[in-house]
């Protein structure tokens, strides 16, 4: 954003703040004007009718209550005191009905207790309590002193308890939001970790195998060594491009992130399984891809997750099954479900609970997030088997390409 745009933005915000302040203080002035009109009221205006007028007039302080609740509370205390004692002077005697002028004060105190820090709310509560106790002693006749004092204390306590309940509710809502944000951040970190692991582990495995092949045949079969080096170069470039896309996406997720135009490219999916199988050709492990059922479009998250599951399973085949192992990838479209199975005829190392590497754990998590079922383990006839059954959304199950 350039300097001119920043200046215009700040100017607009300043004007909006000035208008808001004028409205807030204008409402406060009108509220005090209404209270001034009630100060000289006679006995007929010193009872419940006065409290009703003040309750209606306190809506003029709505803007000030949102931004400066303590100031609004102070104005209501001043107005209530002036109205109560002014009405007493006009009536020529004391009456507990005049204490109803403090009802708007109690309501605003509840707001202060709910939204302000505890120390400020405690100081405001003590101040309002002292003012009302003095008003009860001066305005209530001797016979009505006890009942008026009890009503004032109960009203004040009720409003304070309501404010405390509102405070607890706000704090609980804040905790829930913070917990939701923390869980979302953790889930996103796990997703990024799975994506990086699946991408980097596969690429590094292919590079390591091709480098070993090139080192063994570089003296006797230079053409084959050159082919291995080409595969290493292509895999490295693809991995670097994927990492760059991921990092740019992370930078753009920051509030002030500006990483420039992101490298674009479609995410891999089922359509890329043949190319994935071909990338293992130089490792000595043959890969057959078989599709059954009626293919149909898949949601992007399912398409990418299935590709990553197959990629990780084949990487494990190359790493653990032995150089001459053969793998078979079966993708089966069922009614409302997609089934993916990767089997091999290698050594078939067992996966013990709690001992699975990040690859198996990542596959479990991917399938779990999609609401599917996952299994991985050695086959009775030898080799290893990875299987996932992922439910398809109702809107996707019946579509055709």
UniProtKB/TrEMBL annotation:
Species name: Streptomyces polychromogenes
Protein name: histidine kinase
Keyword Heme: no
Catalysed reactions listed for this entry: ATP + protein L-histidine = ADP + protein N-phospho-L-histidine
InterPro entries (alphabetical): HATPase_C_sf (IPR036890), HATPase_dom (IPR003594), Sensor_HK_TwoCompSys (IPR050482), Sig_transdc_His_kin_sub3_dim/P (IPR011712)
Annotated transmembrane regions: 21-40, 46-65, 70-87, 99-115, 122-140, 146-166
EC number: 2.7.13.3
Swiss-Prot/TrEMBL keywords: ATP-binding, Kinase, Membrane, Nucleotide-binding, Phosphoprotein, Transferase, Transmembrane, Transmembrane helix, Two-component regulatory system
């Amino acid at each position: 954003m350039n300097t001119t745009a920043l200046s215009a933005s700040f100017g607009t915000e300043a004007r909006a703040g000035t208008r808001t302040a004028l409205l807030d203080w204008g409402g406060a002035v009108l509220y005090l004007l209404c209270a001034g009109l009630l100060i000289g009221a006679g006995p007929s205006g010193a009872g419940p009718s006065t409290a009703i007028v003040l309750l209606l007039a306190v809506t003029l302080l709505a803007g000030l209550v949102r931004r400066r609740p303590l100031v609004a509370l102070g104005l209501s205390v001043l107005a209530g005191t002036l109205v109560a004692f002014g009405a007493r002077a006009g009536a020529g005697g004391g009456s507990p009905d005049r204490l109803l002028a403090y009802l708007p004060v109690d309501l605003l105190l509840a707001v202060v207790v709910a939204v302000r820090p505890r120390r400020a709310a405690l100081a405001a509560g003590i101040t309002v309590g002292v003012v009302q106790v003095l008003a009860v002693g001066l305005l209530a006749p001797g016979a009505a002193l006890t009942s008026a004092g009890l009503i004032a204390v109960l009203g004040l306590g009720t409003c304070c308890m309501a404010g405390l309940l509102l405070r607890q509710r706000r704090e609980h809502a804040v905790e829930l939001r913070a917990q939701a944000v923390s869980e979302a951040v953790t889930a996103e970190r796990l997703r990024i970790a799975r994506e990086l692991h699946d991408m980097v582990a596969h690429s590094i495995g292919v590079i390591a195998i091709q480098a070993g092949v090139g080192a063994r045949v570089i003296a006797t079969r230079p053409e084959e060594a050159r082919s291995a080096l080409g595969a290493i170069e292509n895999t490295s470039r693809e991995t670097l491009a994927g990492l760059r896309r991921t990092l740019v996406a992370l930078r753009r997720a920051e509030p002030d992130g500006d990483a420039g135009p992101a490298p674009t490219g479609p995410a891999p999916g089922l359509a890329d399984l043949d190319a994935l199988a071909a990338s293992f050709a130089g490792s000595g492990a043959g890969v057959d891809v078989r599709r059954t059922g009626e293919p149909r479009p898949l949601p992007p998250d399912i398409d990418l997750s299935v590709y990553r599951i197959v990629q990780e399973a084949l990487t494990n085949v190359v790493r653990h099954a032995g150089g001459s192992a053969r793998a078979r990838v079966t993708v089966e479209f069922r009614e409302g479900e997609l089934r993916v199975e990767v089997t091999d005829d290698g050594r078939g190392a067992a996966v013990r609970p709690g001992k699975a590497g990040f690859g198996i754990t990542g596959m479990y998590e991917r399938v779990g997030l999609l609401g599917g079922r996952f299994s991985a383990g050695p086959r009775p006839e030898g080799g290893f088997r990875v299987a996932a059954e992922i439910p398809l959304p109702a809107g996707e199950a019946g579509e055709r390409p």
